[in-house]
Amino acid sequence: MKLFKKLYDWMLHWADTPYGPIALFLLALAESSFFPIPVDPLLIALCLGAIKKSWRFAFYTSFASVIGGMIGYWIGFGIWEGVDSFFFKYVPGFSESLFNGVMANFNEYGFWYVFAAGFTPIPYKVFTIASGVFKLNFFLFVIASTISRSLRFFIIAALFRKFGPEIKIFIDKYFNFLAILFFILLLGGFLVIKFIL
Fold this sequence. Notes:
By secondary structure, the chain is mostly helical. It has one domain. It is built from 9 helices and no strands. Helix 3 packs antiparallel against helix 4 and helix 8 crosses helix 9. The longest helix is centred in the middle third of the chain and has 37 residues.
């Protein structure tokens, strides 16, 4: 936990430097394949400091996150057997039991797994790498990643643009719950289309 706190503080300190947007881009890239801390707190801190730039920050984060997801995909696709023990031992949130659980139904639900992980608090890196291990269609993987990661980060930006600094407390308290609820509603809509209409 001390390591997590140090990483979290180190990540947030970039918001107070001129290099904040570059750090945001690089950390979003890393978070999608191996970095253990979600990039949302830095995005929120940057939006809080420059609300008019919120859309730009969301774009940087989304773009970098999708590229990082592709890196994760290629880790799974090309070198997973040589690095799996490193991930299970040293990357927090990347447990062998979680990875094996993901693998159980990945061939059937891979697109939805990636979409859910990209939008909700589920560790996204687990699913980017699993996509490569199971050789999920790369085009579908990129679509799921682009839609879900963009939704996640542009919603944060939209909230700051609409409500200003006051929204930070609300996001800090309820973002994970709202992300899961939104995904459930979205999935429900797709199921209605598929089975009823």
